[in-house]
Amino acid sequence: MSVNKRDKLRLPQRKKASVALKKDSAIYLPTYHFLKSEFQHARRHETGLIRDDDTEFLHQYRVSLRRCRALLSLLSAIFLPQQKQMLQNTLKTFMQKTNELRDLDVYLGHMEPYFDALDHQYHQGLILFFNDLQDRRIAQLKQIKDWLKSADYQQQCAQIIGLLDELQTEPTDAGKKPCLHLAKKSIWKHFNKTQRVCQSIGYANPDEHIHELRIACKKLRYLLEYFAPLFPRKIMKEHIKQLKALQDSLGYFNDSAVQIDFLNQYLEQQKPGSKRHNAISRLLTFSQKQHADHKISVIDHVNQYAFAAPQKSFEKIYKP
Fold first, then answer.
1. Which of 69, 78, 99, 85 is nearest to 222 (CA)?
2. pLDDT per residue over 29-60, tens digit each?
3. What does the alpha-carbon distance between residue 43 and residue 52 come to, in Å, rounded to a whole number?
4. Nearby residues of 272 by Cβ (< 8 Å), 6 or more positions away
5. DSSP-assigned beta bridge partners for residue 26
6. In a 3-state reduction of DSSP, which class is residue 26?
7. pLDDT for 55-109, tens place per residue?
8. In Å, what is the CA distance from 159 to each residue of 97, 117, 175, 178, 227?
9. Which long-range contacts (CB under 8 A, 24 or more apart) does 109-114 make?
10. Where in the sequence is the domain holding 162, given as residue range(s)?
11. In terms of domains, do 273 and 187 share one?
């Protein structure tokens, strides 16, 4: 093992929230502890992100922020309107600040498949393309480092903790309702929405409809994972497993759509006939064909889930 590798930080382990979900307890208190714990977990990735030890530090930082944003949206009734809006706006800003760096990390991490996809005559253009991306990443990383070290960022983080503390000290009427009541109501509502979207999707649908389904599945999975302690473990595990498989398929499709948009934007900036232009034109053609193939497989997967999903099982367990 090299000295440099020994010096790398390990990814922080997620700590359990100090107050667990219980069927008859008020929903606001465990949700407060979960959100605070999750936000603090995101912040424990900042040092590794600044050191640039591993791209996974940024990825997991964003995963934790996304989990916080999802619960704020899905359990919005337990928050005061202004409190929820301020939390959502600040967390959205954090995500937007790190969007480009994460996208660049993903593209740079897929170098080998891109080279494998193109003939050798296009490799010189691909090298120039990836050099451009690496230069953009260096610039983006510097901006992120400066931002994370800034007084403004520290102030925004303190504001988030203060707003979350209000959830503990000023619970809403909805926040005082039992966990199981809200869990069933939320899961049943989003399961039915997911089923409706699944059953409306076919091969002729535009990509936007598939994107809508991806968001619906993501929301349902967040709910299942958050409320998992309230339901039979074996059944809940199976429901999450089925949904995750569909999500993975939808995710690959979305990634290829995003990649095509990115390549088109890059291509517009290149001189026709240049090595970069020739290579990216070829890569774009390959990506568009791959995207079309993904669409066929994702629709098949959606149909399987829509008509084989455990409707009766969901109804029995989650219907209020």
1. 69
2. 999 999 999 999 999 999 999 999 999 999 99
3. 15
4. none
5. 178
6. strand
7. 999 999 999 999 999 999 999 999 999 999 999 999 999 999 999 999 999 999 9
8. 17, 47, 21, 28, 27
9. 109/55, 114/283
10. 22-109+122-176
11. yes
